[in-house]
Amino acid sequence: MSTPDLPAPGSTERTRVRRIPEKAVTDRSVLHTVLDAGLVAHVAVVDDGQPYVVPVAYARDGERVLFHGSTGSRLFRALAEGSPTCFTVTLLDGLVLARSAFESSMHYRGAMVLGTCTVLEGDDKDDALRIISDHLLPGRWDDIREPSKKELAATLMLALPLDEVSVKISASDPDDDPQDVDRPVWGGVVPIREVFGEPRPDERGAAYPVPEYVKAWTR
Amino acid sequence: MSTPDLPAPGSTERTRVRRIPEKAVTDRSVLHTVLDAGLVAHVAVVDDGQPYVVPVAYARDGERVLFHGSTGSRLFRALAEGSPTCFTVTLLDGLVLARSAFESSMHYRGAMVLGTCTVLEGDDKDDALRIISDHLLPGRWDDIREPSKKELAATLMLALPLDEVSVKISASDPDDDPQDVDRPVWGGVVPIREVFGEPRPDERGAAYPVPEYVKAWTR
Questions:
Q1: DSSP label at B88?
Q2: Residue A118 within a domain
């Protein structure tokens, strides 16, 4: 997919990073990298003035993100009907141990997308399911049964364009106040990362070897 | 803090788990366990009909959660003024590899809190800062400088009661359709967990040993 002429992250009034603007990133390739590194996003829906935030599995597809829910979900139906949403991905990368409580913080990479979703149907919906599977479970699709008509009918597939976005990255050493720098205590960063544990077969799965594509997964 | 007479998770119309209700949990002690295991929550604020979802560091304090933001943040000021919010914590525990695309899913523990925040001031605010530090960076508080008056003035400390909540846990083996159970392919769960990496001192931190409390941290 060629890159369309889209605005830079943080370039609208609603997405401009006001707090700690030096952490804002305006490069769209960084937006893509952050979205591609995540597995779960937090999506908001407003119902009668009350916001709800639900986790969703997702994938980036060019200049949009794809995620799905149940046609039985009131919140997903609201998104399908064009209710404004916010789609946020946060990757926690570490704890920042400064010499003061105020400067203690976290390393993270975060992306926020504002907009309204469109519903995908037909071939677009089929393609989207495969794209999400390939992102979350690379290599798995060819080993499993594709969705039936009934299963497809129970699934709402949504696409949200990456039109109005912000990206924020915190990856620096502690930013200690001059009065604190000589405090005689360790300071620095304790990294955090996600790792995969040993694959655990279910009862029937134990009869088969762990697939090579699963062994290749890393976080 | 004694446990007040609070409703069970999922017991209001707004928090009843409709989708896959067998994953719903109504035990408040599980709510506490999930909240205590997380470091970051996703909090929603609605502004002019548009929801925003931002990540926050937080801690549970009895039957409420505490989190803070900047007094300079429009979204945090809206929360301070009583704008309805949703506070969601999601812990991703694994990938569930079923024999169909439809049943492929994730292991997770999730909590959602609805309500409005109150602003903490004075001693309550001081206590809350320490409680959050003790949750995220246990043992650190006594080594670092406490917040100055100016720093406190720049910090909005919010408390959200655990009055209206839902808890959902997905921890089962693949729930394959009868037509798929004999498909000749590995199935099971690939666990995911967060781990701490080797603490990395900054320039001045290298002169001191890594504190024992940091070495004791595990995820």
A1: E
A2: yes
Q: How far is CA B122 from CA B149, B152, B155, B156, B157, in A?
A: 11, 9, 12, 12, 10
Residue B182 lies in a domain: no
Residue A114's domain is classified under what CATH number?
A: 2.30.110.10
Question: Which residue bears the tokens 């979350």?
Answer: A136
- 8 A C-beta contact, residue A164 and residue A12: yes
Chain A residues closer than 8 Å to B143 by CB? 185
> Which positions in chain A touch B87 (Cβ < 8 Å)?
53
Q: Between chains, do A147 and B101 touch, taking CB under 8 Å as contact? A: yes
In a mutational test of the B interface, the residue from A19, A136, A144, A165 whose CB has the highest number of chain B CBs within 10 Å is A144
Contacts for A53 with CB less than 8 Å, ≥ 6 apart: A42, A43, A44, B42, B43, B44, B53, B86, B87, B88, B112
CB pairs under 8 A between A and B: 279
Domain count, chain A: 1
Residues from chain A that touch B208, judged by Cβ atoms under 8 A, are 184-186
Average pLDDT over residues B144-163: 97
Residue of A nearest to B136 (CA): A95
In a domain, B12, yes or no: no
CB A71 within 8 A of CB A151: no
pLDDT per residue over A49-75, tens digit each? 999 999 999 999 999 999 999 999 999
Range of the domain at A127: 21-171+204-215
| B16 in any annotated domain | no
The complex scores an ipTM of 0.94
Residue A21: the pLDDT is: 74
Average pLDDT over residues B126-143: 98
